Predict the 3D structure of the following.
Amino acid sequence: MPDMDYWPTSRLLSTAARLVELGWNERLRPLGLTYPTVLTLDAVAHAGPISPGKLAENIRVQAQTMGPLLTRLESRGFIRREVNRFDRRSQLISITELGLELLNQSHGQENTVLEGIELDSESLRAELMAIVRDTKVN
């Protein structure tokens, strides 16, 4: 194992995030979900009908990343796309009952990813929220 004592905090955070995502994907696989699909379903569930561009902005991915993901989610019946009645050139994304059901099941898996690791969870949560809230990506 590399000597992490010399790693900058950003590398530690990035490595930890990848490991958590891998663990989460392991637990989501039986549901037919992945980390990106859960993030997307969660954002759609909380935002209500939302445009693909706004959805991409909310989960901090490039707009062109959303297209293939939304196509997969729609083909599996997790979301539906409808023409925006206020702007017929755009679409609005909504979660379906099946998508909501799977999202709720996935939430039960989230808290198991870090089981067995001693953490000061409240302090870590506060620091992670500050990073997510305050980091600007150009």
Notes: The mean pLDDT is 87.
